[in-house]
Amino acid sequence: MDFLADETVEVFELNWSEQEFQRIETECSAKEQEISYLPYPSY
C-alpha cells in the first residue's frame, strides 16, 4: 500500500472512529485489487 501513502497521509492524521477506519481500509484494499493488474514495482 506504499504507493497510496501520499493519498492517505492526511486521512490517517485525522481522528477516525474504528468503523470509519475499517471503511477506509476496505476501500484501499478494493483499490489495490482493482489495479493489481498494473505493473507496479515491488516495494
TrEMBL record:
<dbReference type="InterPro" id="IPR021380">
    <property type="entry name" value="DUF3013"/>
</dbReference>
<dbReference type="Pfam" id="PF11217">
    <property type="entry name" value="DUF3013"/>
</dbReference>
<protein>
    <submittedName>
        <fullName>Uncharacterized protein</fullName>
    </submittedName>
</protein>
